[in-house]
Amino acid sequence: MTVNQAVAKRIEGLLKQRNMSLYRLEQNSGIQHGSMECIIKGRNKTVTLSTVIMLARGFDMTLVEFLNDELFTSEELETD
Questions:
Q1: pLDDT on residue 11
Q2: pLDDT for 26-69, tens place per residue?
Q3: Cβ proximity of 1 and 74 under 8 Å
Q4: Which residue in 54, 53, 64, 69 sits closest to 14, CA to CA?
Q5: Which domains, ranges and CATH numbers included, belong to the chain?
Q6: Which residue among 2, 11, 30, 50 has the highest number of C-beta atoms inside a 10 angstrom radius?
Q7: Strand runs labelled E in 1-80
């Protein structure tokens, strides 16, 4: 799994866990709909740290809390 896929899965998991819509996340994070769709659908090949920070803020959590998931600690996570 790539980092981009892990970020997309983390978003989907948090949306379900918090019963939040993608629209609400876009509003809270300041990420435009088109950009969010690219992340979720895997068309974005380079999710930046700035974007991850914005996502964390959109979920009202710290960057560390967002990244504190087994998706990001897996030995199989591809960083290329």
A1: 97
A2: 999 999 999 999 999 988 878 999 999 999 999 999 999 999 99
A3: yes
A4: 69
A5: 3-73 (1.10.260.40)
A6: 11
A7: none
Which two three-digit tokens encode residue 10? 């983390």
How far apart are alpha carbons 31 and 58 in whole angstroms? 9
**Which among 46, 50, 21, 49 has a CA at the least distance from the CA of 33?**
21
The pair of structure tokens assigned to 14 is 């948090």
Q: Are 66 and 59 in contact (CB under 8 A)?
A: yes
How far, in Å, are 3, 31, 51, 74, 75 from residue 78 at the CA level? 6, 25, 19, 9, 8
Q: Which residue has the tokens 């959109």?
A: 58
- Could you tell me if 4 and 79 are in contact, meaning their C-beta atoms sit under 8 angstroms apart? no
The answer to whether 17 and 57 have CB atoms below 8 angstroms apart is no
Residue 66 · residue 11 · CB < 8 Å:
no
- What's the alpha-carbon Rg for the chain, to the nearest Å? 12
